[in-house]
From TrEMBL:
Name of the protein described by the UniProt record: N-acetyltransferase domain-containing protein
Listed PROSITE patterns: GNAT
Database matches in Gene3D superfamilies: 3.40.630.30
Keywords recorded for this protein, A-Z: Acyltransferase, Transferase
Sequence ranges assigned to domain N-acetyltransferase in this UniProt record: 18-174, 208-372
InterPro entries assigned to the protein according to its UniProt record, in alphabetical order: Acyl_CoA_acyltransferase, GNAT_dom, N-acetyltransferase
Family statement: Belongs to the acetyltransferase family. RimJ subfamily.
Pfam families: Acetyltransf_3
Amino acid sequence: MSDLGWPLSVPVLTDGTVTLRAHTPADLELMVETATDPELVRWTSVPSPYDRDDAERFMTDVVAAGWDAGTHQMWAIEVLDAQGRPHFAGDVAIRGRGVSTIGFALHPDARGRGAMAAAVRLAVGEAFSSGYTEAVHWHAHVGNLASLRVAHACGFRLVAEVPALLFEKGRAIDGWHAVLLFGDLMFARRPWRGDTVLETRTAAGRPIRLRPPVETDVPRLTEAFADPDTQHWLVQTPTDSSATHTAVHRWWWRNATGQQATWVVADGEVDELLGQISVLDMLGVDPACGEIGYLLHPDARGQGVLQAVLATLVEHAFAPDGLARRRLTAAAAEGNGASLALLRGAGFVPTGRQSAAEPLGDGTFADLHELELFPGSSRGL
């Protein structure tokens, strides 16, 4: 660390597009805009309301004091605007020596361009190379998708969802936890599954899109989950919007960690949710295998939607530049004739039957039919 005090002690870091530097009074207005953005307020412990005086105190009492005491390193993020002029775009901080935590925030105008991932790589790289720390831990509220995207892109080891990991605004909050170690490559460890948008059409020509799930899907998903037929055949599905939010957050985490690939099935013209489909158990005993799971909103049934979607997903699952699966499995309960017919129509072949293995919504247990599909074989498509 430099013997000079803040701001002269702050090393300037750049990758040619994003620059990390010391904060300046010229940043204060944009700092306030960042701190009062609704998305940032939702996911962080920043005080609310927040004004210019708060930003000034933050610059002197937190940022400058941290550099001078060596307790944390916080940079202003600088990017270029549309006219090529540099301006403040957010903050990134490494807190604590030896074993550290990272925090970051981005002005809304700078989002969606990879600026935060670049800033994190610069800050963590400096903290490692200078000997400031050996490990950087990342924590975020469960559901903070933007932060999870940054951690994934920067190569953090996505460890777990931890109950009551964070205490913010007077309450304990479940959190996601990840860590980056000295020597780790700061790029995604594996693809974010389910991120590829797939297009298809029903036999009648209706356009269908498979896309990543988003929070605005929750109302339609809740309706699909709560449908009596769905509740009968899939007894562990959510029954209210809170549980549906939890399910969507879990899909994001499992897609990011490579455990599964989950898509929303949506109308290709108006983007209304029609259902959901997944390839599950992708890191199981056979990490080149996967299990198909799906459901439809009741108003989308009987229109050939799942037939088109399943054929498209199977092709993507087996493709080397898709999910690169060597085998797919599926299962359906005795009596679920529609699901069994769908799977057999897609080329899945029965392989076995487990007696009284599948719980049903009425409290009974049905036999479970197991099926499988291989690419390019007599049993495949």
